[in-house]
Amino acid sequence: MEETDAQIIRLLSADGRMSFTDLGRATGLSTSAVHQRVRRLEARGVVRGYQAKLDHEAVGLGLTAFIAIRAIDPSQPDDSPERLRHLDAIEACYSVAGEESYLLKVRVPSTGALESLLAEIRAVANVSTRSTIVLSTYYENRPIGG
Amino acid sequence: MEETDAQIIRLLSADGRMSFTDLGRATGLSTSAVHQRVRRLEARGVVRGYQAKLDHEAVGLGLTAFIAIRAIDPSQPDDSPERLRHLDAIEACYSVAGEESYLLKVRVPSTGALESLLAEIRAVANVSTRSTIVLSTYYENRPIGG
DNA sequence: TCTGAAATTAACCCTCT
DNA sequence: AGAGGGTTAATTTCAGA
């Protein structure tokens, strides 16, 4: 990865709405050159899209939790990520090394909603769950380092 | 939270670079009306910024891990999040309920880098660590549901 | 790959409702 | 709060180096 592309990526990681004009100024390139580079990074899949960072509390999703899951029947094929994909409370799904096989990050409005989500996860994926409740978020989704 | 604002938030959560013109079309409002609403959401802190979603592998940060940390000396004031803030491999820091007090999400290039990061975390914050390595990411930072 | 210029479209600000 | 209009600025495409 070239230094100019790396710089563009750092800038867009910190401000996803930065204009091509400003990106050009920051990198010392013309507007059309950065435009070309950003489009190429998007086409290659290095930049996968853009997203607003939200105050989840204000949006009514004030409860965040991490849910580690473990298959109950190890002989069954384990396609939990696909089985759980439709649950839009699940913001992220990772397969992990360790005692459990997957780790989910979820956002819900309340403990009641978390309770029903857990029931649904267990039913849909035939897994046991271990939840870790987030008490407060100090920082999150920080831009990549520079 | 009003339905129109909620809709704008969902749209910007899915596409942070969506134009005010398109937001207007999608919500049935004029360009200037959505413009006004988005600026208000930003001013209130509901929208905290915008960010490019990256392929971290392509950017040279192919190793993701979750690190749960626990204070070694419970009599010391526990300001780990501030002590660790300067480490830009740490993408997120949560305080959590459970056996450990904080959960970090980190991105590094290699296991070697993870090893030195762990050493630094333990030294800087005087904590013990328990790491969970991410093997693969099925989905992540999905837009909020609707 | 870059620049520079031209054409199109969007952002932004203001006023009126 | 929103619509409409006018000005400024950005995006996008293209020719040329």
UniProtKB/TrEMBL annotation, chains A, B:
- Domain called HTH asnC-type: residue spans: 1-62
SUPFAM superfamilies to which the protein is assigned, alphabetical: Dimeric alpha+beta barrel, Winged helix' DNA-binding domain
Origin species: Mumia zhuanghuii
Which molecular function GO terms apply here? Answer: sequence-specific DNA binding
Task: Report the protein name in the record.
Answer: AsnC family transcriptional regulator
**What does the UniProt keyword field contain?**
DNA-binding, Transcription, Transcription regulation
Keyword flag Transcription? yes
Taxonomic lineage of the native organism: Bacteria, Bacillati, Actinomycetota, Actinomycetes, Propionibacteriales
Biological process annotations from GO: response to amino acid
Tell me which InterPro entries the record gives: ArsR-like_HTH, AsnC-type_HTH_dom, Dimeric_a/b-barrel, Tscrpt_reg_AsnC-like, Tscrpt_reg_AsnC/Lrp_C, Tscrpt_reg_HTH_AsnC-type_CS, WH-like_DNA-bd_sf, WH_DNA-bd_sf
